[in-house]
Amino acid sequence: MAKKIGVTMEVGNDGVAVITISNPPVNSLASPIISGLKEKFQDANQRTDVKAIVLIGNGGRFSGGFDINVFQQVHKTGDISLMPEVSVELVCNLMEDSRKPVVAAVEGLALGGGLELAMACHARVAAPKAQLGLPELTLGVIPGFGGTQRLPRLVGLAKATDMILLSKSILSEEGQKLGLIDALVPPGDLLSTSRKWALDIAEGRKPFLRSLHRTDKIGSLSEARAILKNSRQLAKKIAPNMPQHHACIEVIEEGIIHGGYSGVLKEAEVFKQLVMSDTAKALVHVFFAQRATSKVPNVTDAGLKPRPMKKVAVIGGGLMGSGIATALLLSNRRVVLKEINSEYLLKGTKSVEANLKSMVSRGKLTQDKAGKALSLLKGVLDYTEFKDVDMVIEAVIENIQLKQKIFKEIEEVCPSHCILASNTSTIDLDVIGEKTNSKDRIVGAHFFSPAHIMTLLEIVRSKNTSAQAILDLMALGKAIKKVPVVVGNCIGFAVNRTFFPYTEAAHMLVNLGVDLFRVDSVITSFGLPLGPFQLGDLAGHGIGIAVKDIYDKAYGDRVFSSPLTELLLKSGRNGKINGRGYYIYEKGSKPKPDSSVISVVEESRKLTNIMPGGKPISVTDKEIVEMILFPVVNEACRVLDEGVVIRASDLDIASVLGMSFPSYRGGIVFWADTVGAKYIYERLKRLSETYGGFFKPSRYLEERAMKGMLLSEPSSSRSRL
């Protein structure tokens, strides 16, 4: 089989041409592969010694789909002609309409464009457990090589729309039941069976079926319309702010009403429009932003190798500690969980058990694996077990003296190679490690709650942290299925610092007379899962007060002082934790806005007394979004200016994974650049003239706006990291 990148063709004595795609690791369909396929199919169709054709992928994988790097190039250059012509030229003309039968030999995976090529073949033979799917909508586009037309004709309309809209893949076993796969054979027999199948079609022993011309699974027009109506409702629910789901349904409908080929032409046209949409640009940006986080200058390029982290200790079994322990156990790490007394320890281990149980009940974990994970946990009340740990993660309450005491103790009892990590979300690492002599081993491991579910891990380095410690924690982060983002040491690090104005701005709006439930509703319509007030309820208002004090001290010149949270606590509303905050929380039902909280809000408004002329301000939904998110962009500018992150895209992926900022808007900096630095600067300037220093534009934002530069462009002077 071919090893180098490209497409090869070998014609056997049986008259079967085997065309092989080689582009490791997943045989993605880059431009040279597409040209190679065109050339080989043309050749096979013309050669008189070729009776039939088999298409296969090298190295046990059919194809992972179209090469996403091409999208990135198109977005950088704005040149849509970089997209190769595939759907009609290759898929319809050379493959499906070939006079010689073509059989796809599918193993490992056939995703996106890979599955689309397979569906254009006249039969599909697959090995067990091959993954099949069309995940294009996750990148803001639709299938572009005929997938919207052929999948419904092979598996039925309801199943096809479900697979495409939800980007749901299936295994070849299910594929066979649905009719997508014609035969399932052991990997060792895949090629020989496919060759025989292709010859059987050529010699009339098996039917010569063109997927695009089939109608047996489409049903009547009225049935199809009913299914598409349901699909439109699903699209509205799962993707209210995105164009690709609705566009996809339109294209599928076109093919049902006017025939498959008409649908293929419409698909190609819509695909090109969507590639250039803001949504596709944002989602492709997020895709690459996530990959870029694994490159850290002077760490990942320093010739170091990560050391194995076989045994990890977690100090503190509360919400964070038990979540971190769960994440570690799920990746087969031995975990020592330390607490201060047996009551707390029992509570901590029970939380870990509950986390695993809930994953089993949601079908995310087998009972067997949950049992295995739990057997790796050891609860302790002293440091005896710490003598051979590779890493300690401290996850106790945010108390400086307590953390300093713990770090002094673990430095003495742990081996000299052991990494000493803190899960602090606000306290300066240098202060935590002040009383130790091992400052090069001290690093921040800031998980987001719940730690076994949220995928972001902020790795915080101080000026003393060694490259080895960073590399080790990055490797551990990846092993426990997190996305590690390396950030600099400051109050709130990257994500919490960037988003602290989110709550403050919301409080300001409410004190200016805007309805708090309207604020939440406008922000969730924008695409965040929770508005600022429901988020406050979820975190707990006790924590809110403690954190606010820390931010007030650090960033006092740009905070808004609101008594609202204190008044809430006084009225016995701690948030979700005790069932009442701004919303009422009852088991088994959705949070309900609590209208009686209005009296607390009124009291806060009296105390702040900032309503112009004592009357509520009148704002549009767009103004609410701007007044809440532009201060966040402003703080992101300071984070960029101070070099707290290595690159702007790190802050984008961190905002998507840590704050659930909508990925289809590309992250906080990317979104700001689509809005435009100049517009944001002018809005903030006007707002600061009306409402004071909280909205004052940062120097970085002002400079970028004046020079017409993107906020994300690297500046030459930055480098705290």
Automatic annotation (TrEMBL):
Transmembrane segments: none annotated. Pathway: Lipid metabolism; fatty acid beta-oxidation. Residues 311-489 form the 3-hydroxyacyl-CoA dehydrogenase NAD binding domain. InterPro entries: 3-OHacyl-CoA_DH_CS (IPR006180), 3-OHacyl-CoA_DH_NAD-bd (IPR006176), 3HC_DH_C (IPR006108), 6-PGluconate_DH-like_C_sf (IPR008927), ClpP/crotonase-like_dom_sf (IPR029045), Enoyl-CoA_hyd/isom_CS (IPR018376), Enoyl-CoA_hydra/iso (IPR001753), NAD(P)-bd_dom_sf (IPR036291). Keywords: Fatty acid metabolism, Isomerase, Lipid metabolism, Lyase, Multifunctional enzyme, NAD, Oxidoreductase, Peroxisome. PROSITE patterns: 3HCDH (PS00067), ENOYL_COA_HYDRATASE (PS00166). CDD domains: crotonase-like. Residues 492-585 form the 3-hydroxyacyl-CoA dehydrogenase C-terminal domain. Its main location: other. GO terms for molecular function: (3S)-3-hydroxyacyl-CoA dehydrogenase (NAD+) activity; 3-hydroxybutyryl-CoA epimerase activity; delta(3)-delta(2)-enoyl-CoA isomerase activity; enoyl-CoA hydratase activity; NAD+ binding. It is found in: Peroxisome. It catalyses: (3S)-3-hydroxybutanoyl-CoA = (3R)-3-hydroxybutanoyl-CoA; a (3Z)-enoyl-CoA = a 4-saturated (2E)-enoyl-CoA; a (3S)-3-hydroxyacyl-CoA = a (2E)-enoyl-CoA + H2O; a 4-saturated-(3S)-3-hydroxyacyl-CoA = a (3E)-enoyl-CoA + H2O. GO terms for cellular component: peroxisome. Gene3D superfamilies: 1.10.1040.50, 2-enoyl-CoA Hydratase, Chain A, domain 1, NAD(P)-binding Rossmann-like Domain. GO terms for biological process: fatty acid beta-oxidation. Belongs to the enoyl-CoA hydratase/isomerase family. In the N-terminal section; belongs to the enoyl-CoA hydratase/isomerase family. This is Peroxisomal fatty acid beta-oxidation multifunctional protein AIM1. It comes from Noccaea caerulescens. The lineage of its organism: Eukaryota, Viridiplantae, Streptophyta, Embryophyta, Tracheophyta.
